[in-house]
Every structure is written in C-alpha cells, then in structure tokens.
Task: inverse folding
C-alpha cells in the first residue's frame, strides 16, 4: 500500500505527512502526527470522542478523509492551551470535576469551544444542543454543563 | 482497502470519471455515509470521486419563481441556518436542524443524504411533503425526479451508476400552506426517530384544499400516507376527522421491530404523531 504526501494545517502549523489515502483524519492526527489527544471512540460517527474543529466548525475526525480537508485549519485539543496557560474551558472542566475517566473530554472541549466561539453566553439548552451526541458515561453531564457555563464567564 | 481519490472541479469531469471507472467508482460528498461504508468494508471501490470541489453543486438560494434551490453539496448545517430555507418553510429548517448532531450536520450534505436513502433520515419526508424534486445529471443529460420517488427501498434509489444529484428544488408554496415536521425520540436527542411525520396542508374556506403527509423511519423508504390524505381532502378539519385520517396511517406504514420499538408499537406511534402533526397544522 502506498502512502501519499499530504499537507495539513493543524493547530496553526503546516504539517506534511505521508499517509495512506484511506486513513481518516483521526488516524492521521494520532498515528502520523502524534496528536493523541483526539480519541478513537465508536468510529461510527456516534460518540463525539473524535471531535475536532475544521475552520472552526466541529466535525467527526473518524468520518473525515484528510484529503478532503484541503488547506482548512484543523484545531485539536492540543491547540487549546497557549503554552502553559490552559484555555478557560480546560480550567473550568478541571475545577468543576467535569472530567472523570477523561476519554470523552477532548471531544467535549472541542464541541464546547465551537459553541463559545459563536455564542459567548449560551443557555443550558444551547449547551445541551452543542454537546448532544458527545457521549459521557461517567459524569452525568451536569458537571460538564456547569463547566461550560463557568468558562463562558471567563472567555 | 485502498483507492484512488479524485477531486474534479466540474460536473462534466466527475461524470467522465464515473463512466470511465464504472462500478469500480463511488461518489463522496460530506463523507458521513461513504466513509462509514468504506471503513466497514461494505463498499470496496477502486476510485472515490469527491464532489466537494465542484462549485456548481454548492450553495442555497431562492429560485426566480419564489421556490428554493439547494445545491447537492450544501451541508445540513448550511440548510439549517439558511434564511432562504426559513423564509420558505420553517418546518423545513426544523427538519434539517433535527438531523443527528451539529458535527454530522456540518459534514453531511443534502444531496448525499438523498442518495444514501437511509429511510430514517429527517429531511426527505419533509422535502417530499413540500413537493420537492431533485435534479440529476448523467452523460445522457439532465432529469428531474420527485424526492418522493427517489428512494425505492432501504438504501436504494432510482439513481443509475452514472448519475449525479446536482440540486434539490423546492417549489414555491401555495399561499396559506402550513407545514410541520415532528420527530418522536424516546431515547436521545441525536438518535434516529422511532417515527417522524412531515405534513403540509392548505385550507380554503374552512376545508382542506390540499394535504400531504409523509412518514419517516417506519418503512423501507419515506412513506406517503395517501389514504390519510384522501380522508382529509375537501373535509372540514375537525378534531374527529383528523383523528380518523391519522388512524389510517397504521395500515400505510411498514415498520420493522428494532431497538426503537416493535413494529406494532411504531404503527401506533405513527398514528399518534400523525394526529399531533395534523392538529398542530390546524391549530397553528
């Protein structure tokens, strides 16, 4: 199987990788670029664990072909913090106990970032809409809603 | 599993590639269906032809006759947010907004979902109830087919292997037309419906001048409830008459037993939700 050279803009940097053409964006991010923050969940487009932003819009990297990204900006959870300074969402998730096992957290953070970038003061219903389908099996979601609300106050 | 990936910029080039590679080719637009089928090994094409770079297939706008043109590669999210879609029919906006999650809506395209023909999708019943048609091109030229007639079975359409959906055309609605889309979701908000009902109705002089009812997720394709429509035609839309018409959908749907309920339960829910949809139209 032949790999092809592909240039992606990830977290503000142009990254050229050799990838097999049938690999998904999720696989290229994790296996070729070492960005393992984005998680493999269901790989069926149902759990939201692999959520990344493409030109600011949340998409499922497990159902995205990297060749179809072109020169769009991809943002992963690794792109949230500025050096040692966490994004307000990350701080709020930590403070509110919104992450337990943590597996859904990168997808939750990216879904929430897309929401707050568009709507700085979301209602509880709007938060629920935005993370609908981002499955968490530990927290029961309330702590996640509270963390997003807390972050909204400081973004 | 590997394939050559093509990204034509013109429809003619895409058609050329489709003809050249025949059954070894598969189209992709948003990818939410095609990538899944590829990953599951359900399709094994040697050539994947993307429609995403063909500008002529994108965009949403009002047609000169007051109707709507939705480009095949417009995403569900674009349709959900389109002022033109909302101006024509807020119920159509609601059908697009009801699809899965915002992530799926950001990726999945309107034309792609119609070609995929999953019978549980939200927009097809509403598009059919509004009398929408798709434009399809092939090397033989262009043709138009009603959305209602596009799907013929589970995941099966009348599309030939060398045909591409280019746009969806929603005609202008007759003045006074009301429409609604309701979706019964007993489990989670991002699930497929147990049953969904799209209905459009026009009243004239206190009687039903025109009614269209199309149900989703309760058959191999969206199901047009013609018996229920006929029971309403020309009638005063009393609560009793709406209930009688809704009761007829029980025998018009063809659901399967699954996690979302038994076939018998879905028949009953089809009746209940059709009645609710009709009441909402009359009482609006």
Result:
């Amino acid at each position: 199987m032949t790999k092809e050279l592909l240039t992606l803009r990830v977290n503000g940097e142009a990254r050229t990788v050799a990838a097999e053409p049938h690999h998904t964006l999720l696989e290229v991010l994790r296996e070729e670029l070492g960005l393992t923050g984005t998680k493999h969940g269901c790989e069926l487009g149902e759990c939201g664990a692999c959520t990344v932003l493409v030109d600011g819009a949340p998409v499922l990297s497990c159902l995205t072909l990297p060749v179809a990204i072109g020169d769009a900006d991809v943002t992963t959870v690794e792109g949230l913090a500025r050096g040692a300074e966490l994004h307000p969402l990350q701080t709020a998730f930590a403070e509110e106990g919104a992450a337990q096992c943590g597996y859904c957290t990168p997808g939750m953070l990216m879904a929430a970032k897309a929401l707050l970038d568009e709507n700085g003061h979301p209602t509880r219903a709007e938060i629920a809409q935005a993370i609908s389908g981002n499955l968490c099996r530990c927290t029961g979601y309330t702590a996640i809603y509270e963390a997003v609300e807390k972050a909204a106050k400081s973004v | 599993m590997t394939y050559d990936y093509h990204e034509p910029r013109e429809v003619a080039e895409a058609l050329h590639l489709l003809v050249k590679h025949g059954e070894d080719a598969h189209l992709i637009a948003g990818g939410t269906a095609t990538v899944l089928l590829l990953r599951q090994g359900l399709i094994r094409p040697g050539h994947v032809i993307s429609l995403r770079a063909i500008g002529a297939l994108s965009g949403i706008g009002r047609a000169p006759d007051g109707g709507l043109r939705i480009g095949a590669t417009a995403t569900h999210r674009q349709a959900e947010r389109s002022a033109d879609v909302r101006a024509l029919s807020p119920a159509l906006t609601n059908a697009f907004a009801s699809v899965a999650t915002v992530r799926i809506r950001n990726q999945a395209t309107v034309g792609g979902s119609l070609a995929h023909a999953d019978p549980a999708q939200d927009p097809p019943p509403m598009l059919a109830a509004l009398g929408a048609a798709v434009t399809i091109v092939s090397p033989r030229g262009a043709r138009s087919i009603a959305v209602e007639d596009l799907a013929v079975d589970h995941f099966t359409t009348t599309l030939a292997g060398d045909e591409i959906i280019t746009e969806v055309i929603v005609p202008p609605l007759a003045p006074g037309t009301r429409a609604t889309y309701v979706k019964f979701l007993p489990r989670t908000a991002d699930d497929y419906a147990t049953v969904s009902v799209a209905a459009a109705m026009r009243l004239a002089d206190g009687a039903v001048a025109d009614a269209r009812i199309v149900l989703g997720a309760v058959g191999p394709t969206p199901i047009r409830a013609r018996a229920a429509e006929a029971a309403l035609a020309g009638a005063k839309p009393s609560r009793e008459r709406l209930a009688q018409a809704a009761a007829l959908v029980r025998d018009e749907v063809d659901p399967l037993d699954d996690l979302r309920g038994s076939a018998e339960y879905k028949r009953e829910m089809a009746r209940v939700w059709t009645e609710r949809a009709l009441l909402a139209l009359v009482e609006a």
User: Anything to note?
Assistant: The domain at 88-154 of chain A is CATH 1.10.150.120 (DNA polymerase; domain 1).
